[in-house]
Every structure is written in C-alpha cells, then in structure tokens.
Design a protein that fits this description.
33% helix, seven-stranded parallel sheet, four-stranded mixed sheet, alpha/beta, 26% strand, 14 strands, 331 residues
Length: 331
C-alpha cells in the first residue's frame, strides 16, 4: 500500500512518559504527524517536544473529529483505558495499550460494540506484552504444536510493582526490578521443557528509600510478603539514599524473552526465541503503538470496522512501505 500523500493525523491522549514517547516516535515516521495533544492537566503547563504542536484540554476532543485520523491513548489500564477506549471508539479510530491480560476479553467486547456502532476501527492491547510477545507466542504454537511456551520478563523496572512499593508505610521512594532466573532460562533454551514454578522463573529486586524514623525490617517484611506482588518470589530489598535512587534508578529499562521449544519428530528438537532489550520501556511501547496506528488508519479506510488486536492485522500494514517495496526489499 502506498504511503498517503498527506501525513496521517494523530491525536495523542495523555502526555506522561508514554505520551511523550509517542510524540517522539511519530517524529521518526514521515508519513505521520502529531496533530494535537489532549490532556486533563492545564494545557498551558505542557511543553511538547515538537515546535508548534497544539495542546488541548481533553474536553475539547469531541469537537475535533474532522482534524484527526487516529487517536493513540496513553492512559493507564487500571482506570483510564476501560472508560476512555469505549467512549472514544464511538467517534474516533484509535489504538490503546490496555495490558491487564485477564480483562482483555471484556475490554475487547466493550470497545468492539462502540467501534461497530460508530463505524470506526479500534485496536487494543498493543505494545510488547501484550503485543509483540503475544504474536510470538502465537507463532511458536502454530509452528511447533508439539511443544511448550515460556515467557520471561526482565531484567527490567516494573512500574506497577514499583508503585506498590511506594505505597508501603515508611517508604519515601523506591523501584522494583524483575529479573529472570538464569538457570531457568538455560533449561528452557536447552529444549528440555521444564515445569517451572513462579519462584523458579523470576526473582524481584527492590531499591527503597526509607522515610525518616521508619523501621527497615518492618518495611522489608511488608514488601517481601505482599500478596499478588512479592510473596511468590525470592525478593531482595536494598535500602538506599534518595540521591542514589535518583542517580542510578531514574531510567525505565525492560525487556524479556519468549521461547518455544518443541519437536517436529522424535529425534528433531527445535527452539524458537524472541528477545527484547530495551533502554526505555515507554519509548519502545510508544513505537509499537505508532506502527499500529498506521495500520488502524488503513483498516478504517478499507471499511474494516470494529475492535482489533495484533492477531488481526496483516504485518504489511504496519510498514510505511508499499506492498511492492516489501516484496522487493524484505521478502
């Protein structure tokens, strides 16, 4: 498919780490342009990366339908996207990064009903997991039906777990890293298909700044035994200064592996591995969202309305190159 004569006009909804990453990613794609940023904050307080990029209050968005081709929603999965995606899909084609895996089917149903009613195209749960890792799990299962799939996350900073640490009484600041257990990764790569518990696959490492007067052992005990976050893992808590936290733990690296090991016959063992190593989790997630925004715009133009996931999008629609170019250069 040929690139459009005029850039795809993208509206960015929310301007935190992910929203800034989206603006930076759009700047690297000549067939796309940031049409505007929409925020719940005072628009005058935002400073976009691009000169001349308009910033509007979120309440102005309904009146801008004719100015935008696709929205990229950069809010959180807990409170923002479950409400915003269905509401906005009635009027705009859009992409979101909803990442609460267990709730994806319900989110899909709500967004699909809205997009079908509005004759828009909405893609949910884009990013790297869900997203790129999801595609690689699917490919692994399809290519090696006699096999087992393993997903490892890290080493990387977990924003959700870091937030949970910061809510512990006595904690002034902190971050948490998810780290794959090397022995587990080696076993999986060997193709033996091990049965691995949660504790055997990952460990958690926490760096915590204490509030004045807080008891370190009490804080450590609370973190290590926190249900749903740390109690099923080997967790180490390091107490550091606020200066060290700012100096050494201000970035947001992440990554991980999807590995499928299987057999194509009794004597033939096959292993597939997909790996990400990211300096910036939000910037890479943003790059994925921007590529899928291009695809969503093309699907909407073709009349393919309703909700989609990464499983529903032909890979060629992600690229700015034409089908002819892709066949000549990449096939």
């Amino acid at each position: 498919m040929q690139a459009p004569l005029s850039p795809i006009r993208v509206g960015i909804v929310g301007y935190g780490n992910l929203g800034r990453g989206v603006e930076a990613a759009i700047a690297k794609n000549p067939d796309m342009a940031t049409a505007a940023i929409y925020t719940r904050r005072d628009p005058a307080q935002l400073q976009p990366l691009g000169a001349g990029v308009a910033v509007h209050g979120l309440d102005e968005l309904p009146g801008h339908r004719d100015r935008l081709d696709v929205l990229i929603l950069c809010g959180g999965s807990k409170d923002d996207l479950p409400r915003q995606s269905p509401e906005l899909a009635r009027h705009f084609s859009l992409v979101d990064s909803f990442d609460t895996h267990a709730r994806i089917p319900g989110h899909f149903a709500a967004v699909d009903a809205a997009a079908q009613a509005g004759r828009t195209t909405a893609l949910i749960s884009a990013g790297w997991d869900p997203g790129m890792f999801s595609l690689n799990r699917l490919m692994g299962e399809a290519l090696l039906p006699d096999g087992a799939t393993y997903t490892f996350w890290g080493k990387g900073l977990s924003q959700g777990h870091s937030d949970a640490i910061r809510r512990v009484p006595g904690v002034a600041g902190g971050v948490q890293y998810t780290i794959p257990v090397p022995e587990a990764v080696d076993k999986v790569r060997s193709g033996v298909r091990p049965q691995l518990s949660t504790r055997e696959k990952h460990r958690r490492e926490c760096y915590v700044v204490l509030q004045a007067g807080a008891d370190a052992e009490t804080v450590r005990h609370t973190i290590v035994h926190m249900p749903h976050y740390f109690d099923e893992y080997d967790t180490t808590v390091h107490f550091i200064s606020a200066e060290e936290l700012a100096r050494a733990h201000g970035a947001m690296p992440h990554g991980g592996f999807v590995i499928r090991s299987g057999n194509t016959s009794a004597g033939s063992q096959q292993v597939i591995e997909y790996r990400l190593q990211l300096d910036s989790n939000p910037e890479f997630t943003a790059s994925v969202l921007v590529a899928y925004a291009r695809a969503v715009h093309r699907l909407q133009q073709a009349g393919q309305y309703g909700c989609k996931t990464v499983f529903d999008v032909p890979p060629g629609l992600l690229s700015p190159k034409s089908a002819e170019q892709l066949r000549a250069e990449l096939l």
